[in-house]
Write a structure and sequence with these properties.
alpha+beta; six-stranded mixed β-sheet; 2 helices; 60s Ribosomal Protein L30, Chain: A
């Protein structure tokens, strides 16, 4: 199998020694995305709904750069700073991934990079 790095300017650049995604064996594995505006490099303003929307837009761009889409997502991992945001997260998440209905894990965490409220990573078919 050939391992291929995936990168796009339509999502935030990796801020460490990792790729936005890796494509291998008919699948694409994304790095976790937080709600950073790819144009400014800044965390977006707003609450969980706005931040979730930005995260999913970033992930959509990465998947498209890999030749995939949100409709092909098979697994999602969601990290929430506040588990009380679960219902609001689900509302936006459903707009983006409701058709695909991937398997999902959601965990509450003590903190996320840059003070983000949410981070999500995905696995999708190519």
């Amino acid at each position: 199998m050939i391992r291929e790095s995936v990168s796009t300017d339509k999502a935030p650049k990796a801020i460490g020694p990792y790729e936005q995604a890796i494509k291998i064996g008919g699948f694409v594995y994304t790095a976790g995305q937080i709600p950073i505006d790819p144009q400014t490099g800044n965390l977006i303003a707003g609450g969980i709904a706005e931040q979730t929307r930005q995260v999913l837009e970033n992930l959509k761009a990465v998947l498209e750069a890999a030749g995939s889409s949100l409709d092909k997502v098979i697994k999602a991992t969601v990290f929430l700073k506040n588990i009380t945001d679960f219902a609001a997260l689900n509302e936006v998440y459903g707009e983006y991934l409701g058709k695909a209905k991937p398997a999902r894990s959601t965990v509450a965490v003590a903190d996320l990079p840059r003070g983000a409220l949410v981070e999500i990573d995905l696995v999708a078919m190519v």
